[in-house]
Amino acid sequence: MAWLWRAGAKLSLVASAVGGGVTTALIATSDDPETALKLCATVPHRLFSDAFTAANIAFDYEYSLWGLPEGSIERERIKHEVHLRSAQKLQDLCFKNGGIYIKLGQHLGQLEYLVPQEYVQTMRESMLNKCPVSSYEQVCNVFKKELGDTPDKIFSEFDPVPIASASLAQVHVARMHDGQKVAVKVQHTHMTDTAAADHATVELVVNTLHRFFPSFDYRWLIDEISESLPKANFLTEAKNSERCLDNFHKLSPHIANYVYAPKVYWNLSTSKLLTMEFMDGAYVNDVKTIQKLGINLHELSTLVSQTFAEMMFKHGFVHCDPHAANLLVRPLPSSKASIWGRRKPQLILLDHGLYKELDFQTRTNYASLWKALVFADANAIKEYSAKLGAGEDLYALFAGVLTMRPWNRVVDPSMDHLVIQGNESERLELQMYASQYFHQISELLRRLPRVILLMLKTNDCLRAVNNSLLQGSSLETFFIIGKVSSEAVIEAKMLQSKSLLTWLNVKLDKILLEVRLWGMQVALWLLQLRKTLSWSNQPL
């Protein structure tokens, strides 16, 4: 085991050397000596802390599992304990460092297809609602720098205690002088100053660990972090929210009223402060409150799926951080309760800092792939997986990562072939596949373009939301995805048709598609009717 100690020592030496190098570079190039001095004290400490935690985790795995036969009950028991210990160590590190590290923890909490369940559970339970909080003094400093005065002078009321804190900012409730209640988003102090250094630190630790422990290969995560970080400019975020709503009104008017984003008060917003309309609503995973509002969970799940399907396949401008803390739901303001007390849902999109634009070709290929997945078209799955960067050898794995289903289920012609039940046996099967194909999945994630990695992250977030609403997924969800993706493919073909014959072929494809979708809709209604009848016939 001596080589493990040598590896840990080398990792610490590398951390010290690089920390010194970063410190020297910051002093030599900084335009802000005070900030540079703080960073010079912070960066080496973080780097050493990262290296120590990473080496500690890697050593724990190697030492604890040493000599235990693969597949034995004892090895599985010990591995479970190491997973729990390591997840807790990583969680502690993320909370200690904040910023990018919180984002990293949140993302790991969505990676059910790759990360052990112990990590997923630990990160999900903590990273969305227990982020570090900036002090009121720090908030006042941001206000003075950005707006020239303290919040109690700018607003008639300002609650110094935030109602929410995320990885990069926190939100306070305030009231304007005209009585309007608003939410004020304040960026955490010096978050932007440490972001680049933190990213470089994480990259160094992951790459160094892979060198000493080849089986520990999470290098693809560096690209995901790069793409997953919102641009730390709240004016860009405000523009994104307005563009998002504008897209729905212009490109998806049929559901525009069911999707909302808070109004922005531009005169009280800067790159580090964002003042918005205060929104009352339930978080999308707060099932009990949603039901009290009279909103049907299946209807809400369908709305969430349709909203993001429209963004991905038609708009090409996608909100890529749709975890539960960024999605609120309220009864549609213009709707009235039905005779059964039901209300139509309206989805409120929060935190518009992380958007990705898909070019026409990528958007069309991605829509074509999802159409192929829903209709179990193996040849088309292979073709469009290759076009999106998975290659011709990993298309089946790519389909599995997107749908969380094994290949035999992906190509099963039955209507519910992609539906996830969300039970324990399915979870264990998923973990088995993740462990069995870990290296292939790592290779797939390494070769996929960054934009597709971000679509995978979005997909992971949406799956977690649907799972909290339905304890799995529903047939309606995949019907919506199949419908919207198919419509997007037809629209793309119409735009590219250059001759009358091509145009007629596309029109014929559209008619055939509508017939096919109508058949699926009828089958779906019959299936729902059968479920309703079987439920009503159950003995009390």
TrEMBL record:
<dbReference type="InterPro" id="IPR045307">
    <property type="entry name" value="ADCK1_dom"/>
</dbReference>
<dbReference type="InterPro" id="IPR051130">
    <property type="entry name" value="Mito_struct-func_regulator"/>
</dbReference>
<comment type="similarity">
    <text>Belongs to the protein kinase superfamily. ADCK protein kinase family.</text>
</comment>
<dbReference type="Pfam" id="PF03109">
    <property type="entry name" value="ABC1"/>
</dbReference>
<keyword id="KW-0732">Signal</keyword>
<dbReference type="GO" id="GO:0005743">
    <property type="term" value="C:mitochondrial inner membrane"/>
</dbReference>
<feature type="domain" description="ABC1 atypical kinase-like">
    <location>
        <begin position="127"/>
        <end position="384"/>
    </location>
</feature>
<protein>
    <recommendedName>
        <fullName>ABC1 atypical kinase-like domain-containing protein</fullName>
    </recommendedName>
</protein>
<dbReference type="InterPro" id="IPR004147">
    <property type="entry name" value="ABC1_dom"/>
</dbReference>
<dbReference type="GO" id="GO:0055088">
    <property type="term" value="P:lipid homeostasis"/>
</dbReference>
<dbReference type="GO" id="GO:0007005">
    <property type="term" value="P:mitochondrion organization"/>
</dbReference>
<feature type="signal peptide">
    <location>
        <begin position="1"/>
        <end position="19"/>
    </location>
</feature>
<dbReference type="InterPro" id="IPR011009">
    <property type="entry name" value="Kinase-like_dom_sf"/>
</dbReference>
